[in-house]
Amino acid sequence: MTITVMNSEQKYGHLALVAGASEGIGAAFSTYLASEGMDLILIARKKEPLEKFASSLAEQYHVNVTTLCFDLSEADSVNSITMALNDTNIDMLVYNAALSFIGPFENDTEEHMNRIACANIITPMKLAKIFGEKMLKNGKGAIILMSSLAGFQGSGFLASYAATKAFNRVFAESLWYEWKYRGVDVIACCAGATSTNNYLLTNPGKSGFFAPRVTTPEEVVEECFKHLGKRPSFIAGAGNRLAGFFMQKILSRKTAINIMGDTTRKIYRIQ
Questions:
Q1: What is the CATH number for 59?
Q2: Residues 101-109: contacts with CB within 8 Å, 24+ apart?
Q3: Residue 169 falls within a domain, yes or no?
């Protein structure tokens, strides 16, 4: 008996929108989808690297790649995106964009906190509604929201970021339940430390001998597509899953919170 495995383009449609697409996990998602024959709409803040990346994908995989330069932490970004797309039908939404603040919560500014909430919560929620409604009408589609291990418990010195990532996971899991029999697959991809430029630019120190190894963006993306349509959420990386099991199932919540805060303090040398 021959088993036919559909790729993303065959199962969901021909056009994917990737937000936060020009580097790291977003770039890995874009490359994966282009390799499966999907046309792309890529969104990022910086025009030059985004357009350069888009050209390389179009040339290598012979797909159509459109670029949109918007700051997803701005309150009007969703309106700008919908106006630019002009009712274009999106078959898959990958929301990878995020803002964070590393350090004591009181040191962040009110303006930056508002931008974190917008980029990490408001914008993906609005986009999921806009594109999800059309997917439901078409009876097929997929939405991938990036979450984080930081969102599984309180994470000192990552308070705003961790809280928004908890939202992303719960939001995706909720939509997974509502839409699982309506042709639209939703998943929260919960990553640990990943070797992206943004992560490396924070200049992280060593967190300890038993800390899970840093995963690559490509590993995260490959795992995501293995689980999409099968699970509401997953933790990327075997080491991260093991750490997550101990933090959530074995240790008390108080201990888990202390470990997260102590680890972040050590990695970023916070006094």
A1: 3.40.50.720
A2: 101/158, 101/160, 101/161, 102/157, 102/158, 102/161, 102/202, 102/264, 102/268, 103/157, 103/268, 103/270, 104/157, 104/270, 105/157, 105/159, 105/160, 108/160
A3: yes
Looking at the domain assignment, is residue 259 inside a domain?
Answer: yes
Residue 3 lies in a domain: no
Residue 174 lies in a domain: yes
Q: What are phi and psi of 40, to 5 degrees?
A: -130, 145
Residue 43 structural domain: 11-267
Contacts of 175 (CB under 8 A, 6+ apart): 128, 132, 143, 184, 186
Counted domains in the chain: 1
pLDDT in tens, the chain (271 residues): 444 456 888 899 999 999 999 889 999 999 999 999 999 999 999 999 999 999 999 999 999 999 999 999 999 999 999 999 998 999 999 999 999 999 999 999 999 999 999 999 999 999 999 999 999 999 999 999 999 999 999 999 999 999 999 999 999 999 999 999 999 999 999 987 755 555 444 454 455 434 556 788 999 999 999 999 999 999 998 888 888 898 899 999 999 999 999 989 988 889 8
